[in-house]
Amino acid sequence: MIRGMIFDLDGVLVDTARFHYLAWKRLAREWFGLDFTPADNERFKGVNREACMRILCEMAGRTLSEEDFARGMALKNDWYVQRVREMTPEDVLPGAADYVRAARAQGVRCAIGSASKNCRLVLERTGIAGLFDAVADGTVVTRAKPDPEVFLCAARMLGLPPADCVVFEDAQAGLDAARAGGMRCCAVGSPADLTGYDWICSGLNALSDTPLAPERLQDTP
Ligand code: BG6
Ligand code: MG
Fold first, then answer.
1. Which residues line ligand 1 (CB under 6 A)?
2. pLDDT tens digits for 78-117?
3. Structure pTM?
4. Residues 16-21: contacts with CB within 8 Å, 24+ apart?
């Protein structure tokens, strides 16, 4: 039975995935003269800041000094945070808050499982912090998805075994992390980009006719 739900933040609950993309795109252009495309960005989704910076250096074929590496990450983060500070509850993705509320009404415990160190800021700006029983984010874990650490931490915070939890993820690294942690997972996105999931939807507003519809959760083994 599904007793817990663990939601990735960026790209599942809130529309921040494009802000990460635009900030990496700017850094790629300004520092390396690279044209960073949405296809390149798939590798950056769900992955923590440091790992993203490593992938970018690899794409550019460049090795940076420790100082420049840190400076690049800080610059990208400043650009990202500038946009996050302008966010409002309108930036919550369609149906996301309602879905979490409906799942909670069915007795399901809900947590965040995000790689981001800006998670709290995003939750506050968008007004959804109060919907979650626990927050596992980039400030409390060290290993990047596809390592399952962040989801195992969230399940532990909820007091539930991984097998009773479903993870919602828009990133391949996150789906791989969920499975590595022994959890079922619902992909949020397109089957063209993602693989290795139990369910898939285009967004949390599109789950009403599936076994993950809140009113069917009690019967979903
Ligand atoms: C994830 C995003 O949620 O958080 C990644 O999908 C991002 O794209 C990662 O790199 C780390 O975020 P932050 O806010 O700590 O730089
Ligand atoms: Mg995501």
1. 9-10, 20, 44-49, 52, 77, 114-118, 138, 171
2. 999 999 999 999 999 999 999 999 999 999 999 999 999 9
3. 0.94
4. 16/83, 16/84, 16/87, 16/91, 16/122, 17/45, 17/170, 19/80, 19/83, 19/84, 20/44, 20/45, 20/80
